[in-house]
Amino acid sequence: MSALVPAANPFDAIKRVDDQGEHWSARELMPLLGYDQWRRFEDAIERAYIGARNSGTDADQAFCRLRQEVTGGRPRVDYRLTRYACYLVAMNGDPRKPAIAAAQTYFAVKTREAEAAAAMSPAELLVHQATQLLAQERALQEQRRRLAEVEARMDSIEQKTGYCTALGYARREGLPTNHAYLNRLGRAAARITRAAGEEPAKVHNELYGEVNSYPVWALSEAAGGLAGGQ
Question: What CA–CA distance (Å, rounded) separates 85 from 107?
Answer without folding.
Answer: 9
